[in-house]
Amino acid sequence: MKNLLTARKQERAAEKTDEDAKKCVQGFGAVYPKILDYLYPYDTIVDILHNASEGIFLIIIAETFGTVENSKRRSDLILNDCGHHRKLCGKVRVHPVFSTKEMRNGSQKLTFFRVCFGLASFTNETLSPLARMVIISLMLVANGMYTDAPKDETFYVILTAVA
Predict the structure, then answer these.
(1) How far apart are CA 7 and CA 48, in angstroms?
(2) CA–CA separation, 82 and 62 (whole Å)
(3) Which residues, other chains included, contact 79 with Cβ-Cβ below 8 Å and sequence gap of 6+?
(4) I need a labelling partner for 142 at 20 to 30 A (CA). Which of 27, 37, 51, 160 fits?
């Protein structure tokens, strides 16, 4: 455990990070994260993986599901029928490899947001048009991290401006 804690304090160059991931050392799990073949999470415009579990995505999910007290809401943007949105999220089918039931880590929360939650926002008529645009824009930004498909250079600029 001490070696792992010491190792996490080390600054590692990009190629070392890739080597660490392939060897499953320095805090990487037993399965190589294939996303590193395309880009590093910290090279994105927003640290999407960690913002899913601790930042904007979790806040939006909590406010949409009504698990935030009204006095602690950050805005009135997302006022909707909470039960209806939960039901819509439950109708989205996810490949069995991905888990969206427990949502214990950033990857599971990100998968839930970018697939179930985002798709439910397309059809949730109780969300305002602006709330839908914000959620769907963030969903597309998150999904952009999982593809190497060509994008116009303004793709992220426009979507983050909407969000």
Answers:
(1) 23
(2) 10
(3) 128, 131
(4) 27
Compute the distance between CA of residue 106 and CA of residue 35 in angstroms, rounded to an integer.
Answer: 15
Model pTM above 0.70: no
Mention every residue, 6+ apart, whose C-beta is less than 8 A from residue 75.
63
| Cα maximum dimension of the chain | 52
Residue linked to tokens 């209806």: 84
Rounded to an integer, what is the distance from CA 114 to the centroid of its chain? 6
Q: What is the mean pLDDT of each run of 10 residues along the chain (163 residues)?
A: 46 70 76 69 59 75 83 80 93 80 77 91 94 92 80 83 77
Q: Which helix (H) or strand (E) holds 61?
A: helix 56-65
Q: Where are the domains of the chain?
A: 1-32, 44-162
